Amino acid sequence: MSTKTAIVTGGNSGLGFATAKKLCDNGVKTYIIGRSKEKTEDACKEIGENAIPVIFDLNDLDGIPAMIATITQNGPVDILVNNAGINLKKEFLEVSNEEFMSIVHTNVLSVFAVSKAVVQNMKENKGGNIVNISSMASQYGLPKVIAYSASKGAIEAMTRAMAVELAQFGIRINCVAPGFIKTKMSATALDSDPERKNKVLGRTPMGILGDPSDIADAVYYFASSESKFTTGTILPVDGGNSIGF
């Protein structure tokens, strides 16, 4: 892996940060794409010399090809982790068309645009790995996240479609679907709502929240040769939550 180059979108915090750190710690030169200059540069400093900041807003779909071209000028991209995404927690009847489309724009269209630009480079170099990040919201129904759920369902469908079409070029596409993971944001939300926290843990057979490193480990597996005969799969990393009773 020390000869590989990766791109991680939204890699300046949370699951993306853990993933970027895992790659960098294993010698992978990793471009971290983030909107916030300060936050992205600080994340790269914390991770170390293999982390390279790329300041870019993925909502700028038309600018994505040029941004990726700037990266690939320095050499081929072997790994793409489509992690960046946004959420909206709101009652179904209160979600506007504009809000719904905003989520889809960031969570689906940008993934398509980034993947398309990177796949062109991977095709020229006869191979590569793309790992998409989905969510338990695509595995079963969750209230108040209609747009987010729709976007992550789309990501899983795209994973399968891309895997079938791009296998001929030596490009593998897989997806990790995180369950309830212990981040600053989730900890604050669950600690302030004991009933919800008990419900989450009650239907998780392993009885604990996951760690961001659990997601990073799964992504690393898909990005490495250890999974060389695996493509088009959706891997829940959720302590059994998606099959819990």
From TrEMBL:
Xref: CDD domains: SDR_c
InterPro entries, alphabetized: NAD(P)-bd_dom_sf, Sc_DH/Rdtase_CS, SDR_fam
Residues spanning the membrane: none
Keywords associated with the record: Oxidoreductase
Gene3D superfamilies reported for this sequence: NAD(P)-binding Rossmann-like Domain
Top-rank lineage group of the source organism: Bacteria
Family per similarity comment: Belongs to the short-chain dehydrogenases/reductases (SDR) family.
Record NCBIfam families: PRK07231.1
Protein name per the record: NAD(P)-dependent dehydrogenase (Short-subunit alcohol dehydrogenase family)
UniProt lineage: Bacteria, Pseudomonadati, Bacteroidota, Flavobacteriia, Flavobacteriales
